[in-house]
């Protein structure tokens, strides 16, 4: 039976395999953080794993795995949290039972559904700038060998951070929150800003809109012309969405062919619909790349706070449903034309 005080050979092999996978991701820091979170969870049999970065007095969930997936972009105060203490002390910390540990934010632990957790600092240019955390719904779920694995995994993220940027924390923040292909905000930043936007709209009695956008035609382009041409089409759609939004709006690529927009400070739903129609029209215009005529477009769903929904999850679900409805309508029109 393996010694629980030391990582098992299988665990160490998984760390080596993770290092190899990271090398293939290059400078895509967000992808590296997500990969390490997923691997840390699997190797330690944790319920979930999180990469939290310290930003403006908050610990922000920038990459997640497992049970924490719907908390991406969540902000917790550094004070009175184990993650904040980990950064302050610059050392690995272990909580055996969140119900008995005065160092933790107990309410936040209950929300996430954790009972025990371990956090290890992420060091960039000699300074702790975040943590890698694993957690379990069970009391005292982790052993010393798991904590050593966590430390090794944190070093993989730190190495990726160092190679990704030789600049300061601001450049690192940018790399951690932007989509590597398009330069738009990524899913973590989108959810972070949406949470804050809904809270602000609530407190100031304002209207906020979100657009969920699914690019049309990407799969046929990838199948016929390859992913290099497909990437060019994705970048073109990103550019068209961006050019039809305002400076205060946030445009994000959520992954694959999914995009989203947060429409801030809109007076009413009609203005939001107008923005949606402009984007749809622009995305459907002809696109020629390297003398190849490509058919692209966008299916879009709009949801407005507080008219359509008053909570973040409900707002996203409403916009998603409307987007799929738009996609179905377009397919039906194509079938009728045929």
From TrEMBL:
InterPro entries associated with the record: DGC-Regulatory_Protein, GAF, GAF-like_dom_sf, GGDEF_dom, Nucleotide_cyclase, Rev_trsase/Diguanyl_cyclase
Keyword Transcription: no
Enzyme class label: transferase
EC number from the UniProt entry: 2.7.7.65
Occurrences of domain GGDEF (ranges): 206-338
SUPFAM superfamilies: GAF domain-like, Nucleotide cyclase
GO-annotated molecular function: diguanylate cyclase activity
Keyword Transferase set for record: yes
Stored NCBIfam families: GGDEF (TIGR00254)
Protein name, UniProt field: Putative diguanylate cyclase YfiN
Species assigned in the record: Acinetobacter bouvetii
